[in-house]
Amino acid sequence: LIGAKAGDNVDVKVTFPENYGAKDLAGKEALFKVTVKQVKEKQVPKADDEFASEVSEFDTLDEYKKDIKKQIKDERAGSEVENHVIAKVVENAEVELPEPMVATQLEQMFYDYARRMEQQGIPMEQYMQITGMTPTSLKAQMRETAVKNIKTSLVLDAIQKKEKITASEDKFEEELQRISDQYRMKKEDFVKTLT
After folding, report:
1. What is the spatial distance between Cα 118 and Cα 3, in angstroms, rounded to a whole number?
2. How far apart are CA 15 and CA 113, in angstroms?
3. pLDDT > 80? residue 193
4. Rounded CA gap, 149 and 158, in Å?
5. CA 8 – CA 103 distance, rounded (Å)
6. Neighbours of 146 (CB within 10 A)
7. What share of the chain in percent tops pLDDT 70?
8. First to last CA, the chain
């Protein structure tokens, strides 16, 4: 598609690899007839001192980079410890999960996956054809993660209730603001993405 303009009709010939997921397409040639609807170019701002001063409290790009590296390092270290502790607690917890709970989690994960695919411009039906998967086989692959997610959620809920852990409205708003800032969004816009 390189060099194509909006309105162009282009034929794209593709040979699927021999080890392609959908066995009926493996090694075969395909012709995709493409109509270019529009062409966009991402405009990336120049990374310089002016940029750093506009998006941060720092005057230079070097100071801004150092701060970002420190934040990432601190966040990664905290997350790794947190995740390790949670994983150990969940691993040692004995929880019986009702099958309807697992099925509901799998449906939600499947729906989320389908939505992400469609946001990338790949309808789920097309994804299934390309990969040779079915909703059932994809959910089977997701099952272990679904069980782990449910167990983690139930264990954390139990700990929260037993220890009477609550978050004040101020702490909640502070965390929303922190996450919004992280994504460089207005808090109100970030909240809309959650609903």
Report:
1. 25
2. 26
3. no
4. 14
5. 45
6. 21
7. 99
8. 37
| Torsion-angle region of 120 (φ positive above 0: left; ψ -120 to 50: alpha; else: beta) | alpha
| Whole-prediction pTM | 0.49
Give me 96's structure tokens.
Answer: 């019986």
CA distance 129 to 22: 7
Half-sphere CA count of 62, side-chain side, radius 13 A:
0
Give me the pLDDT at residue 195, please. 64
- Torsion, CA 140, CA 144, CA 145, CA 149, rounded to 10: 120
Rounded distance between C-alpha atoms, residue 151 and residue 192, angstroms: 28
Q: What is the mean pLDDT of residues 44-57?
A: 88
Task: Report which DSSP code applies to 60.
Answer: S
